[in-house]
Structures are given as structure tokens and as C-alpha cells.
Write a structure and sequence with these properties.
alpha/beta, about 190 residues, Glutaredoxin, two-stranded antiparallel sheet
Length: about 190
């Protein structure tokens, strides 16, 4: 009986450690977990991401040097409050010829359908793509983070490498963009 109890304790410890390691958000220096995002139905969002067609895409297919992912939910009051800051971030990037096309934004709606994200996009006038994650599959692969959660990745040959991974919003879009630029290692284009 003693050996049985020891085996159970060891099994519980192993399972707990596997769960704990699976439940961690991606850390700086790691590759972003593989995930399939729905290709946006809006032509302008497909063009923004540099995608032509298909049902799904992976982050490394985005035509950019850096991709900022926001894990959000339309029902999250903090995400709703953060929407204007993200819209300003988008405007700062797209209005700067040295950054436009090099840094892209994508929202991932944890538990949200395409319809729910359409409602959120219209209500908060979100100009960048929002990808549904109605079954929480992507959310699970990212460690079941709370919202809003930001992940910055640098697109590299080996896959998207995380350089920023943090819970919570930001007060100043300009300061956040400077931090992203610095941490990503992007060099200014002439």
C-alpha cells in the first residue's frame, strides 16, 4: 500500500508540473507557440497582413518584421477601455513611413466568435484585424492568459520569436511603441 501511495504522489507531481509548464504564457526569447488564425474576411485586413487567401494563417506568414498580438475579449472591460489606446498605436505606426508595413497589430478574441468581434470592431472603430478564438484553442496555447495580454514577436526564419509578453494595457501609445521598437531590435529604415 505504501508503494501505491508513493506512486500516486509521484504521478500527481508529474501531472501538476506538466500542467504548470503548459499554463505559462510565452516568455521573451521563446518561439511563439504554433497557432492557426482565421484569415480575415475583410479585404483591407488581408492586405494589411499581406495575406492573399485561405481559411487560416500562422503569425510567421504576416508580412512584417514585428507583430503585436493582443489577447482580448469583447466582454473584458479592460479591453474595452484599452481599445482607444490600440487605435492610437495603429495610427502612430501607420502614420510613420519608417514603421508602416514593418509592425502589424492583431487582436485575438479569446472565447469570441467572428460576429462578436465584428460588434466590438464597429463599436470601438478598431482598424486592425481581430481573429476569433471561440473555442479558446489559441488562448490555451498561450497559457490561458488574462486579458488584455500583449505579446510582441519578431518574425524570424525559425519562426516568430517573443520579445515582449505582458498582462495589462498601456497609458501612452507613443511610449509603448518606443518600448516595442527598442525591445524588438528593429533598426530605423532610412
Amino acid at each position: 500500500m505504501k508503494k501505491f501511495v508513493q506512486c500516486v504522489v509521484v504521478a500527481v507531481a508529474v501531472i501538476s508540473s506538466l500542467y504548470a509548464s503548459a499554463a505559462q504564457p510565452p516568455a521573451a526569447g521563446e518561439l511563439l507557440p504554433e497557432m492557426k488564425l482565421a484569415v480575415p474576411v475583410e479585404r483591407e485586413h488581408r492586405a494589411y497582413l499581406g495575406l492573399s487567401s485561405g481559411d487560416s494563417f500562422e503569425v510567421q506568414q504576416v508580412k512584417a518584421d514585428v507583430v503585436i498580438l493582443e489577447v482580448m475579449s469583447m466582454y473584458c472591460p479592460f479591453c474595452q477601455k484599452e481599445a482607444p489606446n490600440l487605435n492610437e498605436l495603429y495610427r502612430l505606426i501607420e502614420g510613420n513611413p519608417k514603421l508602416k508595413g514593418r509592425i502589424k497589430l492583431i487582436g485575438i478574441g479569446a472565447g469570441n466568435s467572428a460576429y462578436e468581434l465584428k460588434v466590438f470592431r464597429e463599436r470601438y472603430q478598431v482598424p486592425f484585424p481581430l481573429a476569433p478564438d471561440g473555442d479558446y484553442h489559441i488562448h490555451l496555447s498561450l497559457g490561458e492568459v488574462r486579458t488584455p495580454y500583449f505579446i510582441g514577436v519578431r518574425i524570424e526564419k525559425g519562426g516568430p520569436r517573443v520579445f515582449y509578453s505582458k498582462l495589462g494595457g498601456f497609458e501612452d501609445a507613443g511610449a509603448f511603441l518606443e518600448e516595442i521598437f527598442r525591445l524588438s531590435g528593429l533598426k530605423e529604415k532610412g
